[in-house]
Amino acid sequence: MEFNEVIKKRRMTREFSNKEVQYCDIEAIIEAGSLAPTCNHLRQWDFVIIDDRMIINILAKCVKNYSSSASKPKNPYEDMCNYAFPRQQSMIEEAQFIILPIIKENSLYKATNMFSLMHFADTWCAIENMFLKATELGLGCSMHVPSMEEQNNIFNLIKCKKGYALTCIIGIGYPSETAYYPEEIEFDRKRIHRNRW
Ligand SMILES: Cc1cc2nc3c(=O)[nH]c(=O)nc-3n(C[C@H](O)[C@H](O)[C@H](O)COP(=O)(O)O)c2cc1C
């Protein structure tokens, strides 16, 4: 797939089919993530891959759906919320693989400036690379950002070491035929500022 096509095709998938995903594809996705830039040159990500059905099901139960939004969506944002909010749990349950990008907690929760957030930013660089690779392979990804309670329950489940933080929960699978993609909101090009604001 051509590069621009991959970028345009990447969407958040929240309904998966039960078609089997090959482990070599997950390895290729992790490899793409691991080529992302890191603030200190050290590539210190940890990725926990989960494909044990029992663990995925328990992990899904650690997550709460977001509370419901507008009943009749008036715009693409509300439409996205209406579709996404009730699917936080099921989009994990339906995934064939889960990837948990995990970082050292360090100064993350006491962040007062950008430097404190650099390791956090590293994982987001890796996450986007992984989404793009998955798209190229014809796979879909979901993403849930966990609350502190959800993180703690998931860390108990996977026996994560102390002092770490969970960036998000990525679900990977082939999109189901019913997967819905809310209308995209176009970037307002007036927000590009040249030489001065
Ligand atoms: C930082 C970040 C956090 C997000 N958290 C969630 C989430 O918790 N649950 C969810 O369903 N989608 C989440 N999303 C996905 C966005 O809703 C989605 O990217 C956005 O609606 C644009 O749609 P698209 O990715 O299909 O282009 C998150 C995206 C980003 C960048």
UniProtKB/TrEMBL annotation:
Keyword Zinc: no
SUPFAM superfamilies: FMN-dependent nitroreductase-like
Residues of the Nitroreductase domain: 7-174
Top-level lineage group: Bacteria
Keywords: Flavoprotein, FMN, Oxidoreductase
UniProt-recorded Gene Ontology molecular function terms: oxidoreductase activity
PANTHER family listed in its UniProt record: IODOTYROSINE DEIODINASE 1, NADPH NITROREDUCTASE
Listed name of the protein: Nitroreductase
Organism from which the protein derives: Longibaculum muris
